[in-house]
Here is the input.
Amino acid sequence: MLKQLFISTPVKEVLADDNTLALVPLVEQCEPFEVGMITTGLEGATSVSLSELWTVSQPTVRGQTGNTYWSKNSDIICIAHWLSKDDCYNIEQNTQKAYKAVLSVMTEHGFSYPFRFWNYLPAINAGTGDDELYKKFCTGRLKAFESAGLTPENFPAASALGHHSDGAVIYMFASNQKPQHFKNNNQVNAYEYPRQYGISSPSFARATALNLNNINYLFISGTASIIGHQTLGENDLEKQLEVTQSNIEHLLTTANPENLSLSTFKVYIRYPQDVAFTQNWLEARYPGVDMLFTIADICRKELLVEIECFCL
Ligand code: 3EB
Here is the structure.
């Protein structure tokens, strides 16, 4: 059984446990330290310092292949690859290389199906028009997926956010079981966004469902205030929360074959001054959902908040 927990336990004990698939602490660094630990540069938004923890029931083994770090058991592999500050000056080419490395480590270990990606990048909104860092990242990612023979209907769920540190990290989960990828009928598929959003469209599904050992999971991608391909509620946090909620609720009814329930939210908030309102708003509406709040830049400048979900 795969679980996502938000914990404040000291790092050492957690890494010593071989049921830990990945520990993702909210720390300033975004660089490799130790197999099993994925630092992202994302800051926590609340005073308690929390870490995200993914655990599995079957023990994991961990290792490093070149600059790519992995941990796995027979059902699932988690793979992480960092870009240095210098690598990020050529984000397109180095994203492509990073994805190539991650996908080849996945294949070497006998896993066929990537089902969830996270991408945390520095200065994600730096640069204008087609030169925006996020857009160059999208080109690198798409080129790598195309080279690997991954077609849009096989793009998995993802999140892509900006932090205020140096370096980038891409990490992912893959399985041997074929996942099911879903669209959001109220949004244009990200991989079909019109030209105005960049040379290469973002390569991800709105949600990915998976069965591992007779247990069902649903991963909802980073979800924001977008209808069709347009941002709604510019400069209006509550409107953005409402549209984001409507997108999540729509996915729960149309992209959720096993009718799973929301278990956790990872919430990305652009401005610290929006944290309290966002937290109160979400906690009032989703009392049973465990939430992690982070400060992060969302890939469209006008987006104030983005939410990803894990359902069990
Ligand atoms: C959007 O819906 C908002 O590029 O991997 C959400 C989730 C977003 C994933 C990605 C981007 C990505 O277009 C942004």
Notes: The chain is about 20% helix and 35% strand. The first helix runs from residue 11 to 16. Residues 3-311 form a domain with the 60s Ribosomal Protein L30; Chain: A; fold (CATH 3.30.1330.40). The two ends are 10 Å apart (CA to CA).
